[in-house]
Known about the structure:
The protein is built from nine helices and 14 strands. Strands 10-9-8-11-12-14-13 form a seven-stranded mixed sheet, sandwiched between helices. The chain is an alpha/beta fold. It starts with a strand and ends with a strand. The protein is globular. It has two domains: about 110 residues, Alpha-Beta Plaits (2-Layer Sandwich); about 190 residues, Vaccinia Virus protein VP39 (Rossmann fold, 3-Layer(aba) Sandwich), CATH 3.40.50.
Amino acid sequence: MKWWEVRTPVDLTVVDQLADLWLNIPDIKGVATENWSVDTPPHAEYGEWFDESILSGAQPMVVVYLPETWDRERVQSAVETVLSEWMEDTPKTPRPNVQIRQLDEEEWADGWKKEYRPVEIGHQFVIIPRWDDVADHPTRVKIVLEPGMAFGTGTHETTQLCLEALERLGGNGREVLDVGCGTAILSIAAAKVGAQKTTAIDIDPVAIRVASDNVVQNGVPQVQLIEGDLVSALPSFEQFDVIFANILRDIVISLAPDAYRLLRTGGVFVCSGFVRDHLELVREALSQTGFTAQHAYTKGDWALIEAVK
Length: 309
């Protein structure tokens, strides 16, 4: 099998914006970002494992993989669609020199693998690419993931903050809800540290498909996957001990009343996905909802709150 590869050199500050636009193209097979700064986290949706040793000072690049069944005209049309929208949003950006080529599946797979490495998080977890040696890191809880098009593969600060929160809270016997689960990294981690039941919800069918593969790969059948939003997907009588929401600030705020309703007394709402400058805004919204004790943690520019019902 062959793939179309589209490589676009871009300024570091707009890598994520261009990659986001490519995700709107139907049937896309993968998006990667190359040669980013070690001080700038890779975009969470495109795979986050990162080996700093591969940096060479080269031009930042957005790399997209499209199906073999497309002809060159369709590939070129997709490129024009994405670039037109991108340049409309960034009118001062010069048109980049896009490279289009076909490559075989083995070359495509090896290209992914070169840039993804195991990531140790906190004192307990290690995130391992599916093709890596899982026998390494014998003292850590191993979460095996396939890089793909769903949020959460380990090195973004918000994912790390959530896993560190799970490490603090523990999983033994708890019932855990993971809202906007992405790859299901948090649900899998909770199951592996003893959660009695873990429910993972995402509105994105691509995320659910990726999460399903990861649940099987990690041998955690106690993780229940649901496609839908929080309000419609769960019956009102469901109750949880811990709810994770690693999503956008405004969604965290809008979810707070439902999270409060679904938590048992003494349960914890663990929310992240917002920058530290917005901590007080989120704190205030959680307080107005009824949450009492709140504990805040930060990593880089990002923040997390543990709010107790």
